[in-house]
């Protein structure tokens, strides 16, 4: 398990909290396959992992746009930062199938980004949207 419930701050928006809870299950299933070095399972789960992250981002971005949230561009730019990294690691996975490299990224970069993003950006945004 990469991210536990207590690692993720609850925010003042039920939809955002629901997105995070659903997403954590997908993240942890993906991480478990990576950690087990189950290449076939990672191949199977990687597209769903990326889709779940994108659903989270798109839903938040739509909510920010509908609410004319003033810091939307800064929040979205933080999404874009990790989108680019995820895209890079997905492309590298397709070529190298390197679970060790992917595990390092998930443990060192992704987990830190994810928990900090929720603590900073999502917590700040939540009371101002939808």
Question: Can you describe this structure?
Answer:
Belongs to the hemerythrin family. Pfam families: Hemerythrin (PF01814). There is one protein chain. With 130 residues, this protein is an all-alpha fold. It has a single domain, classed as Up-down Bundle (Four Helix Bundle (Hemerythrin (Met), subunit A)), CATH 1.20.120. Helix content is 78%, strand content 0%. It is built from 4 helices and no strands. Helix 3 packs antiparallel against helix 4. The chain is elongated and about 40 Å long. The termini are far apart.
User: What Rg is obtained from the alpha carbons, in whole angstroms?
Assistant: 15 Å
CATH homologous superfamily assignment: Hemerythrin-like
What is the N-to-C order of secondary-structure elements (H for helix, E for strand)? HHHH
How many structural domains does the protein architecture include? 1
Estimated share of beta-strand residues? under 5%
Sheet with the most strands, sense and barrel status: none
Identify the overall geometry: elongated
Number of strands: 0
| CATH class wording | Mainly Alpha
Distance between the termini: 31 Å
Protein name: Hemerythrin family protein
Keywords: Iron, Metal-binding, Oxygen transport, Transport
Family: Belongs to the hemerythrin family.
Organism: Sulfurovum xiamenensis
């Amino acid at each position: 398990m990469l991210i536990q419930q207590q690692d993720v701050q609850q925010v003042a928006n039920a939809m955002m909290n629901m997105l995070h809870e659903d997403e954590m299950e997908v993240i942890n299933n993906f991480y478990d396959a990576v950690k087990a070095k189950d290449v076939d399972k990672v191949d199977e789960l990687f597209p769903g992992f990326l889709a779940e992250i994108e659903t989270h981002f798109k839903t938040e971005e739509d909510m920010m746009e509908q609410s004319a949230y003033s810091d939307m561009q800064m929040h979205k730019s933080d999404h874009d930062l990790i989108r680019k990294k995820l895209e890079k690691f997905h492309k590298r996975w397709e070529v190298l199938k390197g679970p060790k490299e992917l595990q390092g990224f998930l443990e060192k970069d992704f987990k830190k980004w994810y928990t900090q993003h929720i603590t900073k950006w999502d917590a700040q945004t939540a009371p101002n949207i939808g």
